[in-house]
From TrEMBL:
This is YciI family protein. Transmembrane segments: none annotated. It comes from Acidisoma cellulosilyticum. It comes from the Bacteria. Belongs to the YciI family. Residues 1-87 form the YCII-related domain. The lineage of its organism: Bacteria, Pseudomonadati, Pseudomonadota, Alphaproteobacteria, Acetobacterales.
């Protein structure tokens, strides 16, 4: 099943985000779920990071929540608001690899 994880940072969290970036990136590369798409959400200036987005594949929402709870960004309390939702993929225009 597919799930989205939408995370908004606490105000002024850019420096804290950067301080934990390497640990976050390493965690994502060893994730126990399949990471399909991920990256930072940006402010209207298209530069300032204000959150994170993940599209993942997992067996259950509980598995996604466990993954999220172990993320270094979560442990560092960077995110102020997090939403996890099941996602029904109807269109995927990415080229097959």
């Amino acid at each position: 099943m597919h799930f989205t994880i939408h995370c908004l940072d606490k105000a002024g969290a850019v420096e804290q985000r950067l301080a934990h970036y390497d640990a976050h990136k390493a965690y994502l590369s060893s994730a126990p779920i399949t990471m399909l798409v991920s990256g930072p959400l940006l402010a209207p200036d298209h530069e300032t990071m204000i959150g994170s987005f993940f599209l993942v594949e997992a067996d259950s929402q509980a598995q996604v929540e466990a993954f999220h709870n172990n993320d270094p960004f979560k442990k560092a309390a960077i995110w102020e608001k997090v939403s996890i939702h099941p996602f029904l993929k109807r269109v995927d225009n990415r080229a097959a690899t």
